[in-house]
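Please check this:
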Amino acid sequence: MNRMQIKICGITNVIDARICAELGADMIGLNFYPQSVRYIDPEMARRIVQETPRGVLTVGVFVDVSADEVRKIATTVGLGSVQLHGEISPEVCRELAQEFRVIRALRTDSHFRPEYVASFRGCDVLLDAEHPELHGGTGRRCDWPAARAARAFTRFLILSGGLNTQNVAEAIATVAPHGVDACSGVERAPGLKDHRAIEKFVATVRAAETSTTNRPA
């Protein structure tokens, strides 16, 4: 079993980025959606990327923007990956996947079908909870059984949606994702991370993946 990837999303400052790296996060998310309380402008994002240790993947979060706009910001900031929310077609995702690691974010709403994730060939998939207005960071839990079913249709599944120290072990046991994503569950305020909560979250994930690996078949 490969090591579980841990993503901490909604990073807004250099200190939180450094702490995430020190505590064992594999990815950090930088939000470029202007309506989000965790939005940061490209200049701040570029500073964060420059100060983030090598080996930690920097992921830009975008909602309903064109491929050209994603490409422009990702190149300017120096992102290692782009996470795409909203009405983004499989064709656009595949186009961008020729240049970046693409994470296609989908909601497990009433219309979600696990087999749909197979449309995004060459991309990773992140599954999040449904919300009428917000794209991520909602604190709501996604549909774990649907996420488990979707795992068979993608090369790399990241589970998101309301994950925290209290529920992430159960989530890993239920869904068996390749990665987990936390945002509001490790914050002291929107956009400001609780470093102790991140430390506990990472430790809980590592313990949970060890337990899952050692479980009898």
